[in-house]
Amino acid sequence: MFKKTAIAGALGLAISATAQADYRWQVDANAGRTNIDIGRDDGDVDQFGVSGRFYFKDVDTSKGPLGEASFLDQSSYVGAGYQYTDLDDIIEDVDGDTYGLGGRYVLPLESIPLIFEADWTRETPDFSDIDFYRIGFGAYITDNTTVVLSYRTSDVDESHDIDPGDIDAYSIDLKHLWHLSGDGAITLEGSYGFIDVEDNNINDGDDIDTWNIGGTWYVNKNLGFGLDFSRFDNFGIEEDTYAASAEWFVTEGIGLSLSYAHSEIDDTDVESDAVVIAAELRF
Description:
It contains 2 helices and 14 strands. It has 283 residues and is mainly β. It has a 14-stranded antiparallel β-barrel with strand order 1-2-3-4-5-6-7-8-9-10-11-12-13-14. The longest helix is centred in the N-terminal third of the chain and has 19 residues, at 2-20. The model is unreliable at 1-19 (pLDDT under 50).
């Protein structure tokens, strides 16, 4: 009798833990390939990455789609990541590593919760080391709406007489989520930014404008489909990118995603196609 009671109690605890599925840690891994078509020539870019986050408190997964759990719970976190990039047959074979640290802190004011963000990224292509620093400040203007202003700058360690140019970048990012009947939802995200490039021989320091708008339809808590459009305008040379994605949480702690993006530069023969698969583990 005691054994049956113990087994029943253990099963009850396991089911309860699975149903709750709040999490404190998140680990992500991704792999992608981009094929770049440059007229008669082409090349491939392979990327492999891993990253992780630690949240200051358990993330409540009961407020909406699992893919938006930390956003809806107004969570604070710190994180780190690494990505390896291999460029084959594009001018020459080039390998590179990218490291990053960052985080977000949400100050839980009753009126308007404030958002503070900061991150550091180091890119190490064969010809140089490039450090990027970003700070952001914003707020939850509603429970489901954020606006964040960001400033980003770079520090280039020149080598082999190559100077990619220093940058100062500014952007504004907006995000809103609408709840639908049942567990469904729709998110809409948009951003605008401009980049001031200094001492760059390619565009002689002209500003670069960037736009992005995208949305995700969550059929239920576990499944979502997204579309995205972005434009990179470098002094009249425009690059448009169209993307589609799908995200599926097999369980509340394991998520899988697949995305495809097509980019083309106006009035040129340059095009690219990228496919990325990713997995996410929460615990």
